[in-house]
Amino acid sequence: MLTLTIAQRRELKSQAHALNPVVMIGKSGLSATVIEELERGLTSHELIKVKVQVDDRTARNALFEEICEKLSAAPVQHIGKTFVIYRPKPEEAGKKTERSAQKKKREPFRTKRSYQN
Q1: Mean pLDDT of the 57-72 span
Q2: Cα 33–12–26 angle (5° rounding)?
Q3: Is the pTM of the predicted complex or chain greater than 0.85?
Q4: 83 CB contacts (<8 Å, ≥6 apart)?
């Protein structure tokens, strides 16, 4: 299970505010198809909301932890019957570091007078 800093969690919470739930888990609980759907959602979106129809609070907490452990994801937020889960894309993590290393400093604009010299 991933761990996030407070600043990362705060940023992810603000991003997740506008999201709609991608997966809804019924009263039957966590099944193989639900896990596959969660896996598919995390692979394509990184940050997803999950709606749970279980009424028992302790069962929801256990379900939230179980989902994060099975998917090796980070728990971001748990409010009522809504979970927010984050897992970075493995190929994106490598690309971001390469992009920042390759990013060049932009050259200043040339003025009209600089062409006259």
Answers
A1: 94
A2: 25
A3: no
A4: 49, 50, 52, 64, 67, 75, 77
